[in-house]
Amino acid sequence: MLRPLGLGEMLDRAVTLCVRHFALFSLIFVVYAIPVAILQYFGTADQAKMWGPLTDILRAQAAGKSIDPSALSKAFSQSPVLNVWTGLWLVTLIFVSPLPTIALIDAAANLYLGASITFERAYRTALDRWLPVIGINLLYGSLHRRLLRGFHRRTWSLCDR
Q: Which pLDDT score, from 0 to 100, does residue 114 have?
């Protein structure tokens, strides 16, 4: 008969599962993380050119120094903030990130239940469930944006009073 587990028992089982199958879990995630890190590196290089001068402006303002009025426009005109790499990085985050998440959940669930699992089988399950999860993510993102937009409108209306 099953009984409810305490927090300590749940953590113990989770850590034990992760330690015993560290290589599998790592491989499932690293296959996704390395390409994303490369895309992020190239995609955010232009953003660093913009954020550096903006940080300098904020530091100067905090120190009470005078700021050149054209410094802000110069910071934004340094280079394009969004390039092809940034687009690929964002598309990868939106459409590919559910794959390792689903694969990790499937692997952990199967291993916890005593079944055997391989890298290929975990990703095959992830591919089978990928489109519905993408749909849920897009729906959630849309609802989240609408809720935030409404929250911001209410907040600004309160500030205008």
A: 92
